[in-house]
Structures are given as C-alpha cells and as structure tokens.
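Quick one - first record:
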Amino acid sequence: MLIPVILSGGSGSRLWPLSRELYPKQLLPLVNQFTMLQNTIMRAEGISAIMSPIVVCNDDHRFMVAEQMRQLGVESAAIILEPIGRNTAPAVALAALHALTYEENPLLLVLPADHVINDVDNFHKVIEKGMPSAIAGKLITFGIVPAGPETGYGYIKADKKTNLTGNDSVVFNVDRFVEKPDVTSAEGYLASGDYYWNSGMFMFTARTYLEELGKYAPDMLTACKAAYAKAVVDNDFIRLDRDIFSACPGDSIDYAVMEKTTEAVVSPLNAGWSDVGSWSALWEIGAQDDHGNVLKGDVLLHDTKNCYISATERLVATVGLEDHVIVETADAVLVARKDRVQDVKAIVNQLKADKRQEALVHRRVSRPWGAYQSVDNSDRFQVKRITVNPGASLSLQMHHHRAEHWIVVKGTARVVKGEEAILLSENQSTYIPLGVTHRLENPGVIPLELIEVQSGSYLGEDDIVRFEDVYGRSN
C-alpha cells in the first residue's frame, strides 16, 4: 500500500497578512476554492493502492485540519500533533512509526501541504513509475525540471550516467544537493541539464527511512520513538509527549538523511509545480488580465500593470501602479514591490518582536465549534460576531472578569446559564453575569450567528474556566 504523509506544520510567513502563525497558508484557499491542504489531499487520489493520509501538523491547527478533511469526506489514517516544530525529518519519522502499525513495510509518499501541481496526471505517472525503486530500498526525491535560473530554490545534481530503471521510468542516483545559488551558478545549472529544483517531496518505505535515519541521526530517531511510545490517542488526534519531543533534535530530511545516505535517487518531475513561497509566486501562477494583473476580491484599477492585488474586506483602488503587491485584510494591509516580497518575513519578525496579534491571528478566529470575529473593542468592552456550526457547542465555562450579552441574529441557540436552560430565536437575547457557569449550543441545522457584547475589567481569551469540553481542550 502507499500512504500519503502530508506535512502541514509550516507558518508561511512570507504570505502575510493572509497567512499567520495560527492560520497559515496551507489552510487558506489561495489558488482556488479549496485550501492548499485540501488540494494536496485530493492530488494524491487516483494513485494506485493509495490509502487515507497521515497528516502531521501543529497542535494549534488541529481542529482546522480535521474540519478541512471532514469537508472533503476524507477519513484520515491519523493526525499527528507536534507540540513544537522540529522540522521535517522528525515529522516523517513519526509518520513512518505510525505507518508500521498498519503493515510490515508500507510505502510512504511525503508531500508538503502547501504546494501547487497543475499537471496531476503526470504527477501520478511519475510516482507510480518510481514505486519499484522505492520498494527496492531507494529513497526517492522528486526533482523539478527547472523552468529558469531560479535562485530561490535549492538544487539536486543527478548522476545522469545512472538511469536505474530504464527509459520508461527515469530515476538517477543523486550526485549532490546544492544550496540556493546566485544567478550565475543557477544559469550554469540550467545549461548543464543535470540539475533539478529540490521540491521537498519524497517516496520511500517506512523501514528504509527509519533505518537510514538511525544511521545518520540516531538521537533523533530515539527521541521520536520515545515520544511516539508515550503518545495519547485523542479522538482523531495522536498527541505526542511534549517533554520528550521537545528534546528531539530538529533538522530537515535533506540534512538529516538525504545528503548523507548512499541510497538517495532523484526522479525528474515536470508537472507545473510551485511551492507558493511568496506573493510573486502567486502572481506567476494566477490568472492574469490583459495588463498582467492578478486580482482577488473587490478591486478597481486605473493605469495599473503586472500587479497582484487581493481585497478581502473592502474596495481596493489603484492608480498608476506597476509590479506591486497589495494584500488587504480586516486588520492589516501589505504594499510591496513585487521584487521585494521575500522581505515580508522581516515585517512578521518585527510584529512578533512587538508582540502584536497581527502576526498570530486574524480578526476572524477559527474554533472547533465554528468561529468568532472581533467587531469593535476598547478598554472595558468588546463586540464579537460568533458563528456556531450546526450541532456544535462551546465548552461549559465561566469567566472571572467579564459579563456577556448575547443577541441571536440567525438560527436557534440553546443557552445553559447556571441551572437554567433556554432556547433563543432570531432577535432574542440573554445576559450572562460575571461568574455564572454557561454554555452555548446550536441545536439547529443551519449555522447559528449571534452578536456578543463583553464588558468587564479584563477581556482576554485566557479568562475562561472550562468545566466540560467535547473537544478535549484543557482549562
């Protein structure tokens, strides 16, 4: 069997302000109506002997990952939660250890959750043709046939003298891995025909990967085994032991294994690939108008060329712009020259240093039961728009420092307030005094929407004492 291992632990800081630490790019619909994660899951469908995927993600993203898989009707083999990021080598080791609980030595297809591949049919063909080499004990990395002298990617040099499987299925020994080059070096790589972009996609058997990891990074393998042995199954999730995994060395698959093993091979892939690593990359793959502009949302242009403009909350109008990126959200606007968008990460670092929320979350915050969006706030009050999914409920909770007023604007709410339980319909309201135990539920078949007005001396999200929670969230 072939098990997709989907790595969904990145933060995508170069796509700020849409991508944020608690709502990263792989969970966003950047190229079509599906999120990057959903596109990755669907892309794996159609490969022979494919199983449900194993997803490795940040603990903070667990409910969004589970919900996006539910929307596709995909039953996950597992969602492994990393309490702290340790790069790709440990993540794949954990997936391999879990995969071994299904059969003796399954084949793993490792896919980052935030890539674009336009030619899915050719992607499937390359994978299926490479399977015999992977089953035979090779560690396959998929090298992207370069479209130009790109300086933003690492490269893989193939030993073109070693076509391991014949003309029908081209798999070469890896000569060496190369860091991101300067322009002159990249032009030389392109001219030689021996180099491929490093995609970060791999295929190998679970035991082969773990054996090679044990040779070259034994401390990492030991820590992963220990963290997995102490893992706890929580509904759809596999929770690793935080203390053990936090002590695990962090490294990429390339550095930990692929650059050291003698079993590394490269399979060329030409399938319209992009890692969507910047706003300029989204401009390149987007649908451009007659003036080279890629437009999202409510945008009005005059004398504007070769720009990427995304409006999510309001009208964005431009005059006399060329080669720029403008991204508008409810709480932040990015304006950058298209050739400087790699520097967006510096803005994110500054936001984090200043401890600003714009680096972490949007005004609309996803929760396992639905979402809430901040509408207005001041020192002693806050107004939120709350959406509760059909059949969902918030935790049974209490606040020490704030009272809440709830006004239903759509749907039906069941409210537990102390010893009392009431039903509220549209245009009805209730008041939750400070210190009173309460719960909000949606017993209906359509989303419940309400306006919440909080008032009190402290309005932080950590002023919640949970008594019961169907989602297993601790107090």
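second record:
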Amino acid sequence: MRSGIRLGGILGIPIAIDYSWFLIFALITYTFFLGYKDGFPELGSAGSWGLAVATSFLFFVSLLLHELAHSVLARASGIPVEGITLFLFGGVSRITREAERPGTELAVAIVGPATSAILGLLFGGLYLLLRSGTPYLAGACQYLMFINFALAVFNLMPGFPLDGGRVLRAVVWRVTGSYSRASNVATRAGQVLAGMLVLVGIVVILIPGTDVVQGLWPIFLGWYLFSAASASRRQLRLQELLQGYKARDAVGRSCPTVPQSLTLDILVEGYMVPSGCRVFLAASFGEPRGIITTRQVRMVPRHRWREVRVESVMLPLDSIPSVAADENAYHVLELMASVDVAELPVVENGSFIGLVSREDLLRMATTRSELGG
C-alpha cells in the first residue's frame, strides 16, 4: 500500500494516509454529526459538525496509537517496520519481516489491543468527569470509549490478519514448534471468520426494516479479512517453496553485462529486445558499476535514446542495499518489497558476485511447486 499522503514520522516511523481514508473519515464524521444533532440540539448544526470532526480526529488518533504500539515494539524486537498507513478499514503497520520467535509474535500482537483498551479506560474516565458539567463533551468521550473497547475486542478475534489471529499463531507456534503449521491454522481461521462476517451481513440485510448499511459493513470487513488471509496463505506457500534456498542460488541467471558507455538506443535494439532480458549489469572495463532496467529506459524520452548513455540513468550499485550470498531467499524477497526494487546486488566476503532478481526467485518457487515441492 504505497499510494497516499506522507504526513511525517513519529519516533522515526513514517506515517501516511491512504486516499481511501478520506472516504471513511467523511462517513464517520457524518455519523457522529447525526448523533450529536439529535442528542444535543443546543449545539446547533455548526457545533454538531465541529464536535463530530473533533471526535473523528480523536478516533483516528486512537487508531494511530494502536498501530504505533505495534510498530514501536516490533522495532524494539529487531523487526523492520516500513511505516504506518491509515486507510479505509482503519490502519496497518507495514512490518516487513515476521517475528522469529513465538514470544515476540505474541507480544507485538497483543500490545495493539492493550493500547486500545487503555485508551478506552482513559476516555471512560473523562466521560465520568465531564458528564455533569459538559454533557456533549462527555458524549464524545463515551463514543470514543466504546469505539476503543470495540477496537480492542474486534482485533482480538482469532483470525489472521487480525491481532487475535497473530496471537493464535503465536500460541500454536509455541505448542507445535512449527511456524508453518501455526500460520496455516491462523490464516484458515481468518478465512472462516471472514465468511462468518459476510454471512452476518447478509442476514442483517434480509431482516425486514433493517438499514441496509448496517449489513454492508460486516460484508465489507469480511471481504477485506478474507482477501488479507488468502494473501497471507499465498505468502506462506511462497516462503515454504523457497525454504532452503539462498541468494547465491539465483545469482546471475538473467542479468547479462553491458558496457555503461552504451547509448540507450543500442542497449534497447542490440541487447534488450533480442534477448528479452529486462535487467542488465552495467560495467566499466569489466568492473560492475550499476543496474539498468527497462524502468530506467522508459524514464527517458525515446527521441533522446541516441544521446543518453547507460551510465547516466543506471542505478549505481552503491545506492542499492546489498544482501549476503547466504541470505534466505524469502528474506531477499521481503527486502525487495520494502525498498521497492526488483533486483539486489549479492556480496560474498565483501565482493560483488552478481544480482538476484524477484523474477528469478519467483521462477524458482514456481518450478519447485510444479515438481511437487
């Protein structure tokens, strides 16, 4: 999820808002407005809108704190975190590598709902303090109390990718000693939970006199959870297929070397098109200097290909994160996703030995799957 608006960072963790967030913010604000307008007519329309916007803002601050708790503890446990994104269904911490121990998995998973529960208690305390003097502010705190408690309870439901699904995975992992088996159990539970939510939504819609919107929310949530759980199962299968393979096993399979002094027209017509290769290692006097791909070529207008050289648009090797030759192949894929590249240099004993590409790693996994791996 890379689309959206970057807001900055908290404790070194980048924060972003996906464009879909604006839709849910508007819907929630309108819902709060209707509640305040009916419950506190003395506020008037302007006051109700103002309080509704403030309540929605605090609601999303609560979501952000929930995800920030996950991210901070993950980083403290040595797990890389790419950032936090708020989107249509709430928020997500973009953790780029799974925990290596069940205890770490359990701690990172449980801290989010625990944070929401604490926020629920804080808003509950404010409600008690304000209900006699400023009932409309007390009403806002009451809403936020219930929302945070609901957020904690919902996230603890035992289905991946919810926090409760990660708790379930940690427990099964600890009992069985198998991360793979635990992940299968948690993702399958997530799919079952998603199906139940969709069924509940359909039943609600079919009840005479019920607002259709009340049934659409569980259906949308069920669809999202099922998609996320299914994607996690595919990732798990990919991890299993690459088990035992290292970065060195895929080095140099589809990355020929070209002189960095070539112009782009010669590169395209003489190398890329005839070979069908989309990635080349650019070298100077036999020494690797950078990577040139179709992506870099497309960034240059076609009419300039005859004058622009490879060295002007290539990605210098020293600007790209490198991986050790004995790095786990699946971890290499995770790193590629986190830095948004399709190729990475591979080094052994401090020396460059070649490139590993996403395409070759996926081809290895596909071949192993076809052979019954």
